[in-house]
Amino acid sequence: MLAQGTCTAWxxxxxxxxxxxxxxEFQNWFAQVEVIGEEESRIVLRVPNIFVQxxxxxxxxxxxxxxxxVDEKGRPNIEFCIKSEAExxxxxxSPLEExxxxxxxxxxxxxHNYTFENFIEGASNQFVKSAAMGVAMRxxxxxxxxxxxxxxxxxxxxxxxxxxxxxxASNRKLKLQCITTEEFINDLVEHxxxxxxxxxxxxxxxxxxxxxxxxxxxxxxxxxxxxxCMTFEALINAGKQIVITSDKPPSQLKLSERLVAxxxxxxxxxxxxPDLETRVAxxxxxxxxxxxxxxxxxxxxxxxxxxxxxxxLEGAINRLIAYxxxxxxxxxxxxxxTILSEMFQYIPQKKITIESILKSVSSLFGIRVQDLQKSSRxxxxxxxxxxxxxLAKELIGDSLVKIASSFGGKTHSTLLHSWKKIKKQLESDExxxxxxxxxxxxxxx
Length: 445
Ligand code: ADP
Ligand code: MG
Fold this sequence. Notes:
Elements: H1 8-20, H2 23-29, E1 34-38, E2 43-47, H3 50-67, E3 78-82, H4 83-87, H5 95-98, H6 101-106, H7 126-137, E4 146-149, H8 156-170, E5 176-180, H9 181-193, H10 197-205, E6 209-213, H11 222-237, E7 241-246, H12 257-263, E8 267-270, H13 276-289, H14 296-305, H15 310-324, H16 333-340, H17 354-365, H18 369-373, H19 379-395, H20 400-405, H21 412-428, H22 430-444
Parallel strand pairs: 2-3, 4-7, 4-8, 5-6, 6-7
Antiparallel strand pairs: 1-2
Helix pairs in contact: 1-3, 3-15, 7-8, 9-10, 13-14, 13-15, 15-16, 17-19, 17-22, 19-21
Magnesium ion binds at residues 156-157, 213-214.
């Protein structure tokens, strides 16, 4: 049963954070939060707006988990109610108790934002998006199964739900289930416990479309893997569409050979990290939707520093909105630097030395470092030496005289001559261009 009003766990948490943060921070982010319900495994908090929710989870997840109920993964199990919504909730009907139990189990839970229209295309996801659209337009008739894999926050769930929306909208008769692997396992456990597993099997075998998210969670769950594999085979054999997402390709999953082989039957498509231009497009699209204007130079600046995944880009936008309080204002580079600096990722630049250049070039051409420092005129030595000189002039800030002297006492005019020669040759020699590009990359990262 839900307890109203006071909550000791929350009060203890407040006492704890009060000591850790400034009074302003406390007033802004904690003081207005109210506990509107609590039970052993969950707590319901009323927050004035979404930003407070994001702030708490983004900055205090660990501390919250110490004091409040946690889920099976050890994350704080909090249900948030935004004030305006929460005010409509009668104090006597708890949001926890209202959860539709039966319906949740068997109806597709699709995030309404995750549609093809809201998915920004770029080189890293074009292929997988068109495969997803192919499946959505002709379920069971194009690629089956479609297996989408890629790192966290790159849009796998977004595409999976997009397929769901499209199919639901264009073919209402098709029976569709979209479920995470964890939910599938929980469902199965629940049905085993209540001895209704046959009903569940029946339900799954009569689906037209099964969309299953994060299959990596099936690893090391032997009994469930068998059940999933049977469901999978039954559906595929009946020509029903399956789409699976995963953080790894099938071959790298610790699952039975049989299931891996099944998952490779159809099309395996990778979703990669979006390139700079796509990140900028995503940023601007998402910011605009939330009423935040980001000028293009600032968007580039953010996208250059936040590059691991799309979720982080969304986090950057939320932070900008929350901290500046501007939902329709303009964001300048200064604001961005102050507010996002902790999110920014800097690639440490290695200090490039003559020694590291000599080493890289000698290994590229299969000669010894000492050879580059002698005055041999043999072509197989002279050419690599010129390449090393070219790279040294390009990448090292020292004076030309000093750089030249590191090549067995050459003069700076020899250095310049070599640099010009290689520069010219690069214009027409694709092979050399690639070799130099690779060597530079190795040196720089
Ligand atoms: P994954 O399942 O791969 O971890 P999600 O599908 O949950 O990632 O995506 C994380 C967030 O990034 C979501 O809010 C999603 O809408 C957004 N997102 C990812 N890729 C794109 C994209 N290409 N265009 C627009 N939004 C994207
Ligand atoms: Mg996901």
